[in-house]
Amino acid sequence: MGRAIIHLDMDAFFAAVEQRDFPELRGKPVIVGGSPERGVVCACSYEARPFGVRSAMGMSRALRLCPQALVRPVRMGRYREISLAVFAIFRRYTDRVEPLSIDEAFLDVTGCERLFGTPVEIAARIRREVREQLGLVVSAGIAPNKLLAKLASEQGKPDGLYAIREEEVESFLHPLPVGRLWGVGPVASRRLENGGIKTVGDLQSLSREYLERHFGSFGPTLFEMARGHDDREVVSGGTAQSLGHEETFDCDLWQPEDMERELLGIAERVARRLRRLGFSGRCITLRVKYSDHISVTRSHTLARGEESSGEIHRIAVELLQRTEAGSRAVRLLGITLSQLGQRGSGQESLFDEDDRRRRETLNRTLDGLQERFGEWGICRGSLLAPPGRREGGDGDQGS
Ligand SMILES: [Mg+2]
């Protein structure tokens, strides 16, 4: 018995939320992003795409291509709130939900037929619920594994539902450009195309040994992907949900006192939003962007969820001391809480005080390890991928 995997990906997520919240933006080219002088496009509505506007493009270039575009600032906190509601709908059908980003997930619905219908019916129901309850569009791909499900949802976009049955895998993959496969970036694509390999069908003609010789350890993966093989499980449990707030300053900050004062305001905003949603968060991440646009993050994971602004601020200030803020000028500060849970769910009572302290020490060690993975690897879902660092698909750039 094969598996049934659904890949769900919100269409133009950030831009769609703006159009949802502000009706005057509907049907118009909308760009979500930074300032026209130095920002980048984080997302754009489908109305902006015929002009050539794409996410990760410089704002000034995007506005030259589409001068009539309506530009909206990034409201990450709002997108995270909506994302929580989207994932709550996903979880009505299965607890096997693997978040890939703020607006994208894999669901394993193997064996859910008796309760909810066929995988295609489940995907259609989820799409309907997201549309009716949230006023947003989610595209779905249904296939026997993650690789194919993700390719299927891309195929269906926008506003699509696309299923690949076991017996259709071959004919689906054959005409696909090699660049559509995971991990095949522009460099690998060019190398393959120079060798006359343009489609996945062409790729199938190459032996495992040949691919290993030319692509090293990636070779065998290419060989398997060309045949639509992918055994990876849907890994649930983790949550990509996070809530946060960032402030960019008109003038760079030099004084630690000024930064601490700004952090208090940010902590209060985050805490307010957490309380409104009835959540607390265990992982507190501070983001610091220096005046040269280099940014770093520092995180701390607590044994139990926190939602008070005082405590969030205290930890953020501690984290600030582990950055170069003060000896370098700072242009942006942000605080994100992740590993969210329902507030007061009673989990903390399972641990006595000693236990709690031991876990905190362990968490600190883990945090130290996590930091080595750099800014974008720390807390899944606190992502707003910088340009040029996107991996496969459209991530949370809201396509
Ligand atoms: Mg998307």
Automatic annotation (TrEMBL):
Main location: cytoplasm
Catalysed reactions listed for this entry: DNA(n) + a 2'-deoxyribonucleoside 5'-triphosphate = DNA(n+1) + diphosphate
Active site as annotated: 104
Cofactor info, note text: Binds 2 magnesium ions per subunit.
GO cellular component, as recorded: cytosol
Enzyme class: transferase
Record-marked site positions (Substrate discrimination): 14
Domain UmuC intervals: 5-185
Subcellular location: Cytoplasm
ATP-binding among keywords: no
Subunit structure: Monomer.
Function comment: Poorly processive, error-prone DNA polymerase involved in untargeted mutagenesis. Copies undamaged DNA at stalled replication forks, which arise in vivo from mismatched or misaligned primer ends. These misaligned primers can be extended by PolIV. Exhibits no 3'-5' exonuclease (proofreading) activity. May be involved in translesional synthesis, in conjunction with the beta clamp from PolIII.
Record-linked HAMAP family: DNApol_IV
Name of the protein in question: DNA polymerase IV
